Amino acid sequence: MDTPKSTKMEVIIPAYRMHTQSFVNVLEGISEEDALKRIENKTNHIVWMAGNFVNMRYGLGWVLGLQTEDPYNDLFFQGKALDESIQYPSLAELQKSFHEVSPKVYQTLLEATDEELDELFEIGMNVPFVKETKLNFAGMCLGREDYLCGQIGLMRRILNYPGMKYDMNENLTY
Predict the structure, then answer these.
(1) pLDDT over 70 at 1, yes or no
(2) Cα gap 113→118, rounded to integer Å
(3) Which helix (H) or strand (E) holds 106?
């Protein structure tokens, strides 16, 4: 494992890399057609979930100083509600965007200092036990990624795909 500048990243870095693997694995084999299906018009579709996941990566990078903007930000920023009148990007386009931004965010995580991570970053949650810092924002992003992978995993099963595998691609280093 790469060594981060801040020891505070020693929990974040492995989780980030596991989420990279999970994102790739959970989308494995999903067709573009199935990726747009909703269940009883009550759920988001997989494309929306994947887009929100990728948007979290861009958001995390942005907060830590990476000046790379999500090309689909208008569709997914802050979990913007699914709008069926909009043509969403394909799953392939989102995966391409994911693989473009994720190594850059990973490098940014490795280079973050304790001082940067301790900087206040107003999330707007107003939860008394959550100090709104850049470090805690990183944790919140990882939590959101977990949630979205779980949702996509459930959609896999509902759409009659096999459950997500936990194979590790050792060449995927971010």
Answers:
(1) no
(2) 9
(3) helix 91-111
